[in-house]
Write a structure and sequence with these properties.
With about 425 residues, the protein is of the alpha+beta class. The protein is about 55% helix and about 15% strand. The protein is built from eight helices and twelve strands. The strands form three sheets. Strands 2-1-4-10-7-8 form a six-stranded antiparallel beta sheet, with no helix packed on it. It has a three-stranded antiparallel beta sheet with strand order 3-11-6, with no helix packed on it. Strand 7 (about 110-115) and strand 8 form a beta hairpin. Helix 2 (about 175-210) packs antiparallel against helix 3 (about 215-235). The longest helix is centred in the last third of the chain and has 48 residues, at about 375-420. It is elongated, with a radius of gyration of 28 Å.
């Protein structure tokens, strides 16, 4: 009875801690430069103009950062481009070189200072350079700064019609902006690169363990899940994609669903359940649903992917996590509970990222799902390796027992043979 109470209390507190930790992580923000220069005004206009000279008759409207097209009339247009006009006063002190930092862009941007281009994130034609959470830094030549008011124009290319954003326009000394740029680059790109490398390594290791013990399919599904997650992370890491945007986007959408499929198969085997009919039905449904996205025209493709497909994937993820939670409490199993905790963290971060894609939250904090990978890898990896080592040890014991029995039988046969002679 005492052990039961300790088990219940301990894991209840662990669940509470994970939820509080996940929610509190959303409050973190990267420190801004100490000497940031305030802007006089911010305006915005949907436009397909490619140069400031083409904006003479533009209809500017006030805007504020972070700015998301989904919260404006832009979402009702067929345009996937917009311009921002930011006015700033010349700084009183001109001894420090200034720069402009765009912390996050959906998807690409070009920066003009007093009509002269000073920075560009890549190409604007398909496939468009993809920044997502990657920052864009541009230095302002001192010769371009005029006394009085200066104009900054920023051309932004969105993901698709009505889907784009600009988190902020930070003007400050170049040295301070460089530090902020490096911090953002490390947290949103460098860390994800390391996580992706570990996902690939763990995925290959798990597949290797499965190849050694083919009957243990749990290793194969865990390895497959890791490799699929690594492929999905490329959507954040790769700026200049080598294939058309539509195909790349489909891979990004599909892989998150395929990860859920692999984790479903893994979870069923981990909790000791055999549900072949359910697995076949869900797997077939998910595969057909993902492939059907390829048949849709562009406007329906993004609507179906973001409004329908993400909901389906979230439901599948919730099923897997609920399965772990229920079995963990029912079986009073510490390993299952540990996996369920990982699932809760993944579910919370997935919900955040879906809200970002749907426009209910901004890109300024970036995406969070990939940050749950180290916890998942640590828990899942240690459990699987421990189980594999125990399984090998058990096999060795059985082999030794078998060898002893064979040896004993051989001796008995030898004795009987002597007696018969």
């Amino acid at each position: 009875m005492k052990n039961h109470a300790q088990f219940t209390t301990g894991w209840a507190l662990a669940y509470l801690f994970v939820v509080i930790f996940a929610l509190s992580s959303f409050t973190y923000s990267i420190p801004e430069p100490d000497h940031r220069i305030d802007v006089l005004s911010v305006e915005y206009t949907p436009s397909i103009a490619t140069h400031p000279d083409e904006l003479i008759n533009a209809n500017w409207e006030p805007a504020a950062f972070p700015h998301h097209w989904g919260n404006t009339d832009h979402q009702n247009t067929s345009l996937d481009e917009a311009w921002y006009r930011v006015m700033m006063a010349a700084p009183a002190q001109t001894d420090k070189l200034l720069g402009i930092l765009l912390p996050s862009i959906t998807m690409n941007a070009a920066i003009f200072f007093n009509g002269i281009e000073i920075g560009r994130g890549g190409q604007f034609q398909d496939p468009v350079a993809r920044h997502w959470v990657q920052p864009l830094l541009a230095n302002i030549p001192a010769t371009l700064i005029q006394p009085g008011t200066n104009e900054i124009l920023i051309r932004v290319k969105g993901l698709h019609a009505g889907h784009g954003s600009l988190s902020d326009v930070i003007i400050a000394p170049q040295s301070e902006l460089y530090d902020m740029h490096e911090t953002i680059e490390f947290l949103r790109v460098g860390v994800v690169q390391m996580i992706t490398a570990v996902l690939i390594a763990m995925g290959l290791l798990s597949c290797l363990l499965w190849s050694i013990r083919r009957q243990e399919t749990i290793y194969g599904y865990f390895g497959l899940a890791n490799l699929i997650w690594a492929v999905h992370n490329l959507n954040v890491l790769v700026r200049d994609i080598p294939i058309p945007t539509r195909i790349w986007e489909w891979i990004a959408y599909a892989t998150i669903g395929y990860f859920g499929i692999a984790m479903m198969h893994y979870t069923h085997r981990f909790v000791g359940q055999c549900l072949p009919q359910r697995e076949k039905a869900i797997t077939l449904f998910m595969l057909l649903a993902s492939l059907s996205l390829l048949t849709l025209p562009e406007d329906l493709f993004y609507f179906a992917a973001e409004q329908v497909w993400y909901l389906i994937v979230f439901i599948l993820g919730a099923y897997v996590i609920i399965k772990l939670i229920v079995e963990g409490w029912r079986q009073k199993h510490n390993e299952i509970q540990a996996l369920a905790l990982c699932g809760v963290l993944i579910l919370i971060y997935s919900a955040h990222d879906i809200m970002v894609f749907l426009g209910f939250d901004g890109w300024e904090r970036g995406l969070y799902l990939h940050y749950a990978a180290p916890v998942l890898l640590g828990v899942f990896g240690s459990i699987l390796i421990r189980r594999f080592v125990a399984s090998v040890a058990e096999t060795e014991v059985l082999n030794r027992e078998l060898e002893q029995r064979v040896e004993e039988k051989s001796k008995q046969l030898e004795i009987m043979s002597r007696v018969m002679r």
